[in-house]
Design brief:
2 copies of one chain form a homodimer.
Chain A: H1 6-12, H2 15-24, E1 29-30, H3 31-38, H4 42-54, E2 58-63, E3 66-71, H5 73-93, H6 97-108
Antiparallel strand pairs in A: 1-3, 2-3
The structure holds a DNA duplex (30 and 30 nucleotides).
Chain lengths: ~110, ~110
DNA sequence: GAGGAATATTCCTGTCAAGGAATATTAAAA
DNA sequence: TTTTAATATTCCTTGACAGGAATATTCCTC
């Protein structure tokens, strides 16, 4: 079972950060561009980017005055492989509630 | 672009809830079983299950005195398809930072 | 080197969510 | 029908986190 990083999930669970990620999907952007396109204020953008950066979702490249942010693929790969290994097991178990109910009864009346 | 539900992500971003989900992977469980296996207190378990239930990650079946919780596959499918559509676009853009830098320069010096 | 962009950081405040403890609810069992 | 088991709900408190505003930092340009 691949380990899911809670920090990845919690970083993505904030709407503005999810928007940033959706935006960066199209390619790298500077803080200013993100700020403008999402209608945020610059400090908040920087803060959200820091959270995304700390959790490894995003990486920075300094270019003179500017910081260019872009997505890192690893966290998404990890998340994906978790979900898929997940679905594999779920598929087997799915629609087997009746089996479980029978087990439960057996526990009660041995 | 498939829409990711923030509520799915935020529900999964709490460690105890993620543990519950990992546990339910093996099959449906009652509140008591979850409580015991994770060493939680029963009220907290119920609260976490409510959050998971509200976000559609989990569903309940009442069986006499007990409530049997199990995973619903839909949120995971949605999450998976989002990530994969995501990775498709990222793949194209990946390693194209140089292109972007050139664009930036063009913007500055037209 | 002074002024001005672009970005990060700090401090403050309010909100919200999680845990603890107690209690309510429902169904089973005696 | 009283008691007991399984679960949900409420109230309270505390801590984390997001936004606002101000300020610090870094680098460019003149």
């Amino acid at each position: 079972m691949p380990d899911v990083n809670v920090s990845t999930l919690s970083a993505l669970s904030e709407p503005n950060r999810l928007n940033i990620v959706e935006l960066l999907r199209r390619g790298p952007l500077t803080v200013g561009e993100i700020t403008e396109q999402l209608g945020l204020k610059q400090p908040q953008t920087s803060k959200h980017l820091k959270v995304l950066s700390d959790s490894g979702i995003v990486e920075v490249k300094a270019e003179a005055n500017r910081r260019i942010y872009r997505l890192r693929p690893e966290p998404f790969q990890a998340l994906d492989s978790w979900i898929r290994s997940f679905q594999r097991v779920m598929q087997e178990r799915f629609d087997n509630l009746d089996d479980y109910l029978k087990e439960l009864q057996d526990k009660e009346k041995p």
